[in-house]
Amino acid sequence: MKLSFDWLSEFVDLSGLTALQVAEKLTMGAFEVEEVTIIGPDLEGPIVVGEIIEIHQHPNADKIRLTKTRIKEGEEPLDIVCGAQNIEVGQFIPVALPGAKVVNRHDGSALLIKASAIRGVKSNGMLCSPPELGIAKNLQDPGQDEGIWILNKNGNKPAIGSDVMPLLPTKADYILHVEPRSNRGDALSVMGLAREVAALFGRPLKKPDWSLEDLNKTLGEQKQSSKFSKAVLENESDCPYITLRVIEGVKIAPSHPAIATRLEAIGMRTVNNVVDITNYVMHELGQPLHAYDATLLKSDNLAVRRAVDSESITTIDGKVRQLTGEMLAIADGDSIVGVAGVMGGKDSEISDQSTSLVLEAACFAPAVVRRGSRLLGLSSDASLRFERGIDPASVRHAAERAAYLIAKYCAHEGKVVVGPLIEAGSNKIEPGQLTLRSSQIKRILGLEISAERIKDLLTPLGFTVSGSGEAIAVSVPSFRKDDVKREIDLIEEVCRLNGYDAIVPSMPAATMAVARPDDSLDLAKNALTGMGLSEAWLSSLVPEDQAGVDKQLAVEVLNPLSKDHQLMRQSLVPGLINACGYNQDRGRKDVWLFEHGRVYFKDQQKDNKSTGVREDNHLAAVISGQRFKTVNQTVPAVEYALAKGMVENLLSALNIDERKLAWRSLSESESNALPWLHPYRSAVLSLNRPAKPNTNKEAGTSLFESNITLGYVGELHPRFADSKGLREKAFVFELDIDRLKKERKQKKFAGIATSPEIVRDITADFDATDKDVSYEQVSKLIWKVAGSNLRSSELVSVYKASEESKKFSMTCRLTFQHASETLTNEEIDKVLTTIRESLNRDLAASFRL
Amino acid sequence: MDAQEFETKINTLVGSALAAIESASDLDSLENFRVQYLGREGELTVMLRGLASLDKAIRPKAGQLGNQAKLQIEQAHDSKRSHLYDSALDQRLAKESIDVTIPGTRYLSGHTHPLSQISNEIISIFYSMGFTVADGPEVETDYYNFDALNTPASHPARDEQDTFYTNIGPSSLLRSQTSTVQIRVMENTKPPLRIIAPGRVYRNEEVNARKYPLFHQVEGLLIDKDVNFGQLKGTLSAFIQALFKKPVKIRFRPDFFPFTEPSAELDSECPFCSGKGCKTCGGRGWLELLGCGMVDPNVLKGVGIDPEEWSGFAFGMGLERLAMLKYDINDIRNFYTNDMRFLEQF
Q1: Residue among B115, B141, B262 whose CB faces A611 most closely
Q2: pLDDT tens across B65-115, in order?
Q3: Are residue B20 and residue B150 in the same domain, yes or no?
Q4: Fewest Cβ atoms closer than 10 Å to its Cβ: which of A461, A637, A721, B31?
Q5: What is the ipTM for the molecules in this complex?
Q6: A212-425, what's its fold?
Q7: Residue B38 in domain
Q8: How does A55-93 read in b/e, with b if 16+ C-beta sit within 10 Å?
Q9: What is the pLDDT of residues A100-158, one digit of tens each?
Q10: May I ask the CATH class of domain A520-742?
């Protein structure tokens, strides 16, 4: 909310205070002032009345003339150069003398007057036009804007040398931009903030110097001609209180400058004198008002009731609005003339032809206004205030204030008739009675505050405080009924008014339960950054056409910002590939990125406690381009094996026993679910045990369809890589870190065996036309049958006569070692025979002798 | 052969051997001379082998002379050899000269994301104060995001956080604040409690240099007997000094949050202008760092904790905001674009 310093000074004595001091106090008193701006000219004297004695042509310029202007009787006139065409000898004009500050006509900035030479002729000041004195619109004489302001036009001559500043119709004002607080509807007005400022500075509030009663006395007995007589409330929980008043004999015109200047200062559009007054009073007192053209109302009453579904209204912004039973309407017989608390109707709005009006001031319930405003997508200064709650006890005051101002400023030839107040409902509020315990203040704030001090703090805000000692009785004013309902609310008020700075910092007593956080992620990230990957953070909101999203399981945003942020992601990889493409588009070929983040799936077995969504933590990476930079040396190409090796390193960093895991090719359904993977150069990593029956927590997802699947690694599908504009071959992997964590084992030292190692190579020949065999199968079988002395099995070579050949051989280097004894050749030979027989039997291997 | 004769003969041999060794110009010719004199069939070896046939009387003397000769030649050889080896090596090394200023072979160096770094830093500071890390879902229900946080459906504060709703059900939404984790923890754990909950939150806001539809917060909660506002100030002041690693002027300014009362905003003096007012702080001289307050009794009651027995404070801060301040980053979108030129600066 924009608060005018000048307006504020009408309600609280601000003498000796600057706008910045008030802003600082409000900020530290819970009303943050975001900025303070200056409205109106930043003028400084001396600006005095001068008389033009002589005018000569400028020797060096056609359009500029030289004047001799007297600014003090009996003294020599000054030489002043002037470019305006309307000057004549004998005119009295404002003269800005050196040192004065006026407004630069061209850009509105401040212009400092100096004695200087203009085209070679000395000028000792400036003759001023209205805009140069900050008079944007010359209300008295609009035609004068173009030239110098002539002060003796109407025959009256101001004294030469007298100060012009008091003649200027506008003066500078400071606008405080106050952040509205959602729980403080009472402070959305000049009056409300004046109350705060008065309390914070300990200054008295000023009493207003007007009354409708006095005004009515001056108007005398007048006869009301309108038949309009009633306000009807359907439901007092929607609208506890309403007032209406007929005012006749008004003339619609532009607002009086006193009203218009204030509204313009706070950025409000001026409409006409009546509408402007309703806005004026709303800003002044916080009570929204609405004026209907009385002659356009058909019935003798206005009713506040819920709309019915078929009804509609054209609001004053010209839009047709369909109404529903959730909205509160103002009805004139069968027609709807307003959405209560939100906006009035076009058909009954005040126009230039209006001569009589019905002024409405009411209290609408926050919830129904908020609902209507949301449903219509329409918010207004009125709805902002009603949603935060207004004070029923103050409605009448605002109604009178508006009537007073309308009678004062909108009367048609003095024949205004202010009708009696028409009321419905009740504006009585039982003041809230609370007990504030001294012990609670001490307990919550850690600070003792005396009952006397509490009284001093709360009283200026309208609270009534009595009692002392432990239980202090506090009565809450009606305008604070919505935000002060409990003891804690009073503690906050006391804390705020006493100042947060008064609270001494201390440290909490140490009752702590120490639990070490899981370090899996730190270990994994360290391993990955050590391998040269940098960490990315990607959006979890992805486009509606994101690859690999299973729509059946998708969490979808119903009110997305755009189609690019419509679904919750199910894999980290597409985002990483995009990031890779983004970098390669910018000339960066080597992009190695990883991300740790969540993926989201609709939970198929929803129960009451769950959110209906499963959120898994994944760890994924993309590697594209070279791993290291070197001079004159060829660097081995990044291949599938490197990507897989990274995953293996990662498993090792997490101390996961790889013998509990198994690698295999993609199934057809996995290939479909992971469209970014090369179908024949990708592998799935899973636990080396059968899947468990699906439980709620362990259900598969589109990505990892079985609950033993841990992740995958593979080459990027060329089609996908092309579509993303990748310039280098890329490889990806993605792991379910939640599942991996469960497989970590405690590190334990197994000792270093000193008995001799025996190393044997075994070469097996395979023919894929008989049986498709993978290393994983060979390795698993060797480990299965080799017995307890096998320490390691390492694949040292795979040989194929040609790329197309179906025949291939694998050589594995086996290391045997007994924990304490020396193994004999006979023992090893026996094991090797067993291995050969098993490979032959299970995998159709043959052996050359 | 008498002793005199033997001595002359062996001296002659030593003389020619030493001369030969001295004359050797490289390791190969030296080796030839070694074989010539000291080899299995070398001249000295053969002569010494002949000692057995000498007269018994001169044999000891001759043996002594022979050993001395052998030692003398060997020493000369070894010394020459070491000299030749060193000079050969010196020559070779000189030829191996390279430009040592050529850039080294560099592996891609991995960098953790600045948001990870600041998150870890925040966690470790609170960890040292006895806080433990808690976690909660991002797809939440309006109960945890609003109702349980003392923000009923009609509360205008709901509109201040433009919330994303989902297809999961009418109450399902993307959490707009990590305060949801407070509720989940308090529902399952009895006080005393000290938790810190980092996480992703979502708000339906247009993308610009300051806003992105998702961002990250760290939520903190401490519940104990007799926890007061002074302790909130003490804890967060200590945190800010530790995070910025230098004394930072801060202030606690009253604010409103539905789930804390009293509530405060913690401002730091703007580091860019030292409080004088600049573009970054909008001329205010202060920058908002985090929101905090005493946990509202309604929140405690809602999770079955007696507010007359327990009290506590909560706080929440935006990771992006702190990272932008700490690292002088001027556009929030940098965090999610993942440009290597950005990431590699951290």
Answers
A1: B141
A2: 888 989 999 999 999 999 999 998 999 999 998 888 888 888 888 999 999
A3: no
A4: A637
A5: 0.84
A6: Phenylalanyl-tRNA Synthetase; Chain B, domain 3 (3.50.40)
A7: yes
A8: eeebeeeeebbbbbbbbeeeeebbbbbbbbeebeeebbb
A9: 888 877 766 778 898 888 888 889 999 988 778 876 544 434 444 568 888 887 667 78
A10: alpha beta
